């Protein structure tokens, strides 16, 4: 007999054994605890009576407060954050408050990574998205415009594409009054023309336009919330605002006031005292973060397929920077030193909202309108957390 003929059964036998081993390995893998737990995870399946919300930027200041409110209202939440501006400490606080399985999960990922976003949507059964993730400093946007267009506009497009591919039908979009620019008339209504004057506002408006264009050809439920200057913190002291030290120059005025009151900086630097306002300083509409997240949750509850809701979220009352500083001095009990500098690039003189539409359609009204009280609550958190949330370690489950 030819040698090659004698060898054929031997080779076929080896192939058969190899095939059986491969099949055995696949079956074993599918039955392993790791595979079984992921395939049966509460986050990977839709469940009657439970709404699973993806909160992008949920480790950040506003996103973490929104997550807290959603969890209190029995929503299931997945946070996606790259921690470039957020705090792992805030996530740990939320995990400690809601440790039950199937309530909260954290995923470390960058929304600019389209493949990562695609995988997140494929592996999780989301019912809605609250899109907070964004760099959000007007001054910084004038220095790094390309970063803002990438982070806000391009990343929103990636999220939308993933939602469309995975049949996620509800979007609550965190926008800003910066999309209006410097309107000729006050107060600002939702019909006020949008003429943003800085890259932050322009990037947000571009993202809004993309969302609106897409919604015309889909049955998506869309809510766009344009909110004003956010202050305050959780009234029960669980969460607060803890920006990175290197961002203090660009941060909110409340953070600068608290830094001055704490002695971290020598005093408060007010940028601009020659604006055409009653006292020469900028006028803004300060909205408490607790009211803001309440507006988001009410928007989620009212979202309807094939409909778009656009709402201003503010108190309807403008306060000057000098008024704000006076309230901050009372809230902290510190006579903060004030130094006046030139105007900040890309800033505008006066901005405050007309909230009548959101009052009427979503039954939402700002409740935390006492400026000094909101600052006092936030100051208490700052005093109790001198180092913010402490070291941000990637150890979340």
UniProtKB/TrEMBL annotation:
<feature type="domain" description="NAD(P)-binding">
    <location>
        <begin position="54"/>
        <end position="369"/>
    </location>
</feature>
<keyword id="KW-0520">NAD</keyword>
<keyword id="KW-0119">Carbohydrate metabolism</keyword>
<feature type="transmembrane region" description="Helical">
    <location>
        <begin position="12"/>
        <end position="29"/>
    </location>
</feature>
<keyword id="KW-1133">Transmembrane helix</keyword>
<dbReference type="GO" id="GO:0006012">
    <property type="term" value="P:galactose metabolic process"/>
</dbReference>
<dbReference type="InterPro" id="IPR005886">
    <property type="entry name" value="UDP_G4E"/>
</dbReference>
<keyword id="KW-0413">Isomerase</keyword>
<comment type="pathway">
    <text>Carbohydrate metabolism; galactose metabolism.</text>
</comment>
<keyword id="KW-0472">Membrane</keyword>
<keyword id="KW-0812">Transmembrane</keyword>
<dbReference type="InterPro" id="IPR016040">
    <property type="entry name" value="NAD(P)-bd_dom"/>
</dbReference>
<comment type="similarity">
    <text>Belongs to the NAD(P)-dependent epimerase/dehydratase family.</text>
</comment>
<dbReference type="Pfam" id="PF16363">
    <property type="entry name" value="GDP_Man_Dehyd"/>
</dbReference>
<dbReference type="InterPro" id="IPR036291">
    <property type="entry name" value="NAD(P)-bd_dom_sf"/>
</dbReference>
<dbReference type="GO" id="GO:0003978">
    <property type="term" value="F:UDP-glucose 4-epimerase activity"/>
</dbReference>
<protein>
    <recommendedName>
        <fullName>UDP-glucose 4-epimerase</fullName>
        <ecNumber>5.1.3.-</ecNumber>
    </recommendedName>
</protein>
């Amino acid at each position: 007999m030819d040698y090659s003929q004698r060898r054929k059964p031997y080779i076929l036998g080896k192939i058969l054994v190899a095939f059986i081993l491969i099949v055995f390995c696949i079956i074993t893998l599918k039955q392993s605890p790791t595979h079984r737990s992921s395939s049966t995870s509460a986050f990977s399946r839709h469940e009657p009576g439970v709404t699973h919300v993806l909160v992008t930027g949920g480790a950040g200041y506003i996103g973490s407060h929104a997550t807290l409110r959603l969890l209190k209202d029995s929503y299931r939440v997945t946070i996606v954050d790259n921690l470039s501006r957020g705090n792992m400490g805030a996530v740990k606080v939320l995990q400690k408050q809601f440790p039950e399985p199937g309530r909260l999960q954290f995923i470390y990922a960058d929304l600019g990574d389209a493949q990562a976003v695609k995988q997140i949507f494929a592996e999780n059964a989301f019912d809605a998205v609250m899109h907070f993730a964004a760099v959000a400093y007007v001054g910084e946007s004038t220095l790094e415009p390309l970063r803002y267009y990438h982070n806000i506009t391009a990343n929103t497009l990636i999220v939308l594409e993933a939602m469309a591919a995975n049949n996620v039908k509800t979007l609550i979009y965190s926008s800003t009054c910066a999309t209006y620019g410097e309107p000729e008339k006050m107060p600002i209504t939702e019909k006020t023309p949008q003429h943003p004057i800085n890259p932050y506002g322009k990037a947000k408006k571009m993202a809004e336009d993309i969302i609106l264009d897409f919604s015309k050809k889909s049955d998506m439920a869309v809510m766009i919330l344009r909110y004003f200057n956010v202050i305050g913190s959780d009234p029960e002291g669980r969460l607060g605002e803890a920006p990175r030290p290197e961002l203090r120059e660009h941060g909110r005025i409340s953070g600068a006031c608290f830094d001055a009151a704490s002695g971290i900086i020598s005093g408060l630097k007010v940028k601009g005292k020659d604006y055409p306002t009653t006292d020469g300083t900028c006028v803004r509409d300060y909205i408490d973060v607790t009211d803001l997240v309440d507006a988001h949750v009410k928007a989620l509850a009212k979202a309807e397929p094939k409909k778009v809701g656009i709402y201003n979220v503010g108190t309807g009352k403008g306060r000057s920077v000098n008024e704000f500083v006076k309230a901050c001095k009372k809230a902290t009990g510190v006579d903060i030193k004030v130094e006046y500098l030139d105007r900040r690039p890309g800033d505008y003189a006066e901005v405050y909202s007309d909230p009548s539409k959101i009052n009427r359609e979503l039954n939402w009204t700002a409740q935390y309108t006492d400026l000094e009280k909101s600052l006092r609550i936030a100051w208490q958190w700052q005093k109790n957390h001198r180092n913010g949330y402490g070291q941000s370690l990637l150890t979340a489950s």
